[in-house]
Amino acid sequence: MKTFANAWLGKGFGTNPELASGDISRSLGPERDFFAGVTGITPSPLLNLPERAADLGIGTLFIKDERNRLGLGSFKALGAAYAIAKQAFSKIEEGTAQDPATALNGTTFVCASAGNHGLSLAEGARMFGAAAVVFVSETVPEAFADRLRNRGARVVRAGAIYEDSMAEAERQASENGWQLLSDSTWPGMTAPGRDVMEGYLIMGTEIEEQIAEPPTHVFLQAGVGGLAAGCASSARTSWGDAVTIVVVEPEAAPALQASIAAGKPVVAPGPVSNMGRLDCKEPSHLALKFLALHANRFATITDEEANETVSWLKDHDLATTPSGAAGLAALHHAKGQFEDLGLTAQSRVLCYLSEGPEHG
Predict the structure, then answer these.
(1) Which of 16, 38, 290, 322 makes a 20 to 30 Å CA pair with 274?
(2) φ and ψ at 249, to 5 degrees?
(3) Taking the mean position of all CA atoms in its chain, how far away is CA 119?
(4) What value does the mean pLDDT take over residues 207-226?
(5) Is residue 308 part of a domain?
(6) Looking at the DSSP assignment, which residues form a beta bridge with residue 350?
(7) How far apart are CA 183 and CA 144, in angstroms?
(8) CATH number of domain containing 129
(9) DSSP structural state of residue 284
(10) pTM of the complete model beyond 0.70
């Protein structure tokens, strides 16, 4: 594991023409209650694991367990589905729709996905009367495509890799008048990704009500950066500058870290990582801007370190994937770097199990 301090902490990138304009959300409005009412969402568990904390040499280990969120198996159930619910809420508020189940009839949402974002989009579209089209690459298992179909989505295979399927999703969305709902942001495409990240604030509001004592550290896994930015936003809102935020990426895909080093968004090519959900070579612009301002440190972990942590967690009935365990993997392999990270035997650390084990 490698770590480095964020030189932009507290000042951010400032005005940069290479960055998308705008910012991420910091609080939830009445849309949260609307979303909860339609979905029946309940808080996911916040685990307090003293024996695992002792294994790691820290005082307290809190784990926000997102493995069963809304029956979709990951934190991303709060993302696209919430963004779609926000549109339905607006239509009901303005009086152009009355029934949530049909509020978005005639609308088609489209995305590219290698995993959980597509499931969230499919479920959100189904709940509010919209159609869903999910583009997947040739490498996505057919078992996952079937899970999407079972949620009502039309699945289109396009290209050898995720970037190919994303390009085709963009093309067909423009051609057919569909709404592209990405979990990333870039110039000219910020509102959908911002709303997806806003849904992740739900985790933070739950934690604030669940936690007995504020954490001293939060470890956040990152792909394009949506989870990390959303959860960092909640942490800063709840606990201010007292909490140390560590953003964790695969060594093979350090898009955020490379962009922080460059002072602008850059592509960070590398080999394929076993942390497939986090194997993103280009950051979300709004997430990058927020993390440049608020993250204390960045870390990269190897595929081997992620696998070791998955095995350790499985031995303690906490089954997940390398992506789901990535934040914990950095903490798990932090021995020898405690001083750099500000960790002590009294530290209270919050991590996220962001998804359950693979299906099929």
Answers:
(1) 290
(2) -130, 160
(3) 14
(4) 96
(5) yes
(6) 62, 218
(7) 18
(8) 3.40.50.1100
(9) -
(10) yes
